[in-house]
Amino acid sequence: MLNTRNTTIFELSGVRQAYAKPSGQDYVVLDNVDLTLRDGEIVGLLGRSGSGKSTLLRIVAGLVKPTGGSVRHHGEAVAGPTDGVAMVFQTFALFPWLTVWENVMAGLKAKGVPAREAEARTEEAIDLIGLSGFESAYPKELSGGMRQRVGFARALVVHPEILLMDEPFSALDVLTAETLRTDLLDLWMERRLPIKSILMVTHNIEEAVLMCDRILVFSSNPGRVAAEIRVDIAHPRNRLDPQFRAMVDDIYGRMTARKPLVASSAATKRPPAHAVPLEHVSTNLLAGLLETLASPAYHGKADLPHLAGALQHEIDDLFPIAETLQMLGLAEVAEGDIHLTEPGRLFAESGLDDRKRLFAEHLIRYVPLAAHIHGLLKEPATQHVPSSRIRAELMPFMSEGYAEETLKAVTNWARYAELFTYDDETETFAFEDAD
Amino acid sequence: MVWINTNVSVKAADAAPNRWDVVALPLVIGLLALLAIGGHQMALPLTSVEEVPVTLDPWMLPEYALRSTLRMLAAMAASLLFTFTYATLAAKSRRAGMLLIPVLDVLQSVPVLGYISFTVVFFLGLFPGSVLGAECAAIFAIFTSQAWNMAFSFYQSLRTVPRDLDEAATGFGFSGWQRFWTLEAPYAAPGLVWNMMMSMSGGWFFVVASEAITVGDHTITLPGIGSYLAKAIDGQRLDAVGWAVLAMLLVILAYDQLLFRPLVAWADKFRVELTGAQEVPESWLLTLFQRTRFFRAVFAPFDRMLGRLVWLRLPVGGASRGAAGGLQAVGGLLDRVPARAVDMVWYLLLAVAGLWAGWSMIAFVSSGVDWGDVGTVLLLGGATLLRVIVLIAVATLVWVPLGVLIGLRPRLAEKVQPAAQFLAAFPANLLFPVAVVAIVRFDLNPDVWLSPLMILGTQWYILFNVIAGATAFPGDLKEAAANFRIRGWQWWRDVMLPGVFPYYVTGAVTASGGSWNASIVAEAVNWGDTRLTAHGLGSYIAQATEAGDYPRIVLGIAVMSLFVILFNRLLWRPLYAFAERRLRLA
Hints:
The complex is a heterodimer. Chain A is α/β, with parallel strands linked by helices. Chain A folds into two domains: about 10-255, Rossmann fold; about 285-430, Orthogonal Bundle (Arc Repressor Mutant, subunit A), CATH 1.10.10. Chain A has 15 helices and 16 strands. In chain A, strand 9 (about 215-220) and strand 10 form a beta hairpin. The model of chain A is unreliable at about 260-270 (pLDDT under 50). By secondary structure, chain B is mainly alpha-helical. Chain B has helices spanning about 20-45, 60-90, 95-105, 110-125, 130-160, 165-170, 175-210, 225-235, 240-265, 285-290, 295-310, 325-335, 340-370, 370-405, 410-425, 430-440, 445-450, 450-455, 460-470, 475-485, 490-520, 535-545, 550-580; strands at about 210-215, 220, 525, 530-535. In chain B, a hairpin with a 2-residue loop joins strand 1 (about 210-215) and strand 2 (about 220). In chain B, helix 5 (about 130-160) crosses helix 7 (about 175-210) and helix 7 crosses helix 15 (about 410-425). The chains are: A alpha/beta, B mainly alpha. The interface between A and B is medium-sized, with 31 and 26 residues. Chain B: This is Sulfonate ABC transporter permease. Chain B: It comes from Azospirillum palustre. Chain B: It holds the Pfam family BPD_transp_1. Chain B: It is a multi-pass membrane protein. Chain B: Its main location: membrane.
């Protein structure tokens, strides 16, 4: 029904966002991203955390200046906060010292809209979004869902051309999120929103398929558009509709397709095997997923979207667990499915001591960093290895945040496996005392 | 009400002393020395200062109390102005911050009472023959006791404005002025109000000390509680001392009820945590104002005017007249020029300024002091250091267990906490005469018995912080300890002491800083013609001040600042870092 997709509002081409690191090598967040935003469509940016999709949203908003590429708004280059966009935040970002009314009006006052008009528009936005009666409340008096409604009203009241939404429903519980989504979609379909287009960031595949006309799937490290998917399902969409399920499955498949972990970027230096970023996933989660898969309900094989639904996990929760299991050789992930390997099955069926032994074995075989530290500790003269040394070895190849995360991951896994331990006081790795 | 400061300045910078301290210390002390040189010359032709007679009639006390209070308010206004400008500039510009923050750090370690002599002379020179100069000097002394931690707190807040709120403000196109008043200042308000309260409670001490002061041939008396006390001491009138104490009690009580309770209760709405606070601070006065139709009607026009002022679209930077916009412009200008090369020039400039200031300080000091004196002063500093350490240790041994026991009984804590905060605000120097009389009567050794005076007023910070810590100690941990029968020494060592430690450090930092300052008045005290002196850096500075011996004053201040800075860096900051890292109850 909304087929007036002709006017281009925003055009991003070849956008690159990189941070210079002391080592000289750039840390690339976004690489060569193209995005066109047209009148009358909802576009979703879908990807794991760390894929740079939120950064891209901020580039569109003019809050972040890209290090490369061009951003054009109605054909003109963007510099500074973009006119005609308004943002809805994951954390709501309401001013706690202002009432609902004042929060909604803030954007208009900042623009210097005359008082009478500002009041009329504020009232209109508050009515539209279902906040009437709450005008005098402070944000801390409201539930999460009501707070985000204030976030929407505050954004809509300035009559932006584009509404930017940064995971607007992910801080809400499932039921509240669904209510807000449908309310927003209804208003959009009835063309009651004073906006032309919506650009939203999400890591929830179903949400993207439910709301968007177009979905850009991002890959991580560095963030790139891995696929662009057009959703041609008529609104209102039904989550149980076979076409809907097929699309969700398809996206899961694309996001779990086997591919090199680090895309061969412009990096001239190939990192040594142990300098690959690891994501810290608790061993409880690893064991939990293995046990679930081994249970009679799944018989060692499961469809990821189904599993996510059953466990009430979103991709940001489930993917890292699945991928870590895959890395450790305990499970295989492909085309949106996960199945146990033989060692994985063995792990699920063993007692704690055998699990630890198996985990230690796999840690040394499949996680080069663990093997590396273990090897260093086994050298005769070495009592302990300072974490600063390992960090220095990682730093040229990843951001500081990733280096911390990687160290945390290897520390916790090694502790579980009783391979080696870490002393927080002296900040060193060491073997556990034999006594 | 339990409200614990999270903005103690000791946390503000990194724990390790850095190269900026090397520049900041000589800069600060050097500038003070320059002030002394300049002020000294200006003051030379002045023969006498207008004497304002102070009488010991108790009925004059209300007027004196009012005068003292007004000085306090004027100083607070100046401190706020300073905070809004200095901290904003430091936060908005990287290059300005590089200089301003270490300077602030040194400034808060310089003993206020040490340089009161220069500032008196300087301000007297500024307004020759008028009492205004003396007033300004007193207000300035109070200001310097209040401004630094407020500025630190504000700077900290500006640097930690939540990213999403910041983006929302940018996204909605707030101008610099609008951003300052609708985002930054409100966000900083709770921390700032808390620090204002701490500043005020420290300030009374300096009001008392700065109203009657003798510098060389000049004796300045400003009508107020402090000069009333000085006169009482001169005349050895204990009854008059009693009246002064009573007046002070009433003034502090009124201040607390009429100014700070309402402020704290009001500032609570600026807290960012969106969860409703468990304990909401209350004030009967604020409630009165908010609930009474009459007052609301009276204040409504002001409210609207303020609202309009806040939302004025003053341009960011450019030819802005707004404070925030202007500062942002200055900050922007400082930062706009390209990086590396200009940084080098900027460093060089600062280094040269530091060198020059350091050199002029040394030149000035060596004009009146031979280098043997330096050794003596260092020794005296050691004596005062010993006193501070012993006193803090004793206060810790006494107040930590007591504070814990009180804090674990909510009913009792509710009653003791305000009393402890009140005692911390009460200027201990009002009680010095009583101690002196006792020391003289029992013929005690002043080197030992004058020492407790240093911590008389500041020990309460330890008490009320520990009470707050014990009150905030999580109930489930207490229950767990009881359930596993953890008792006796193990209970203290493994359960309670780690729990209150971060709070204790906060209190102890304040107490030790205050003690250094107090040493200047506590190590040399008078009672009529009787004069008691303890050996220490404090009495050295006090005597040099009385003699108008500027090189010695500068030397004394420099050494004391050095001791305070080192003490903070080598003891308190590591302890703070440890508490932050290991003992945080998330």
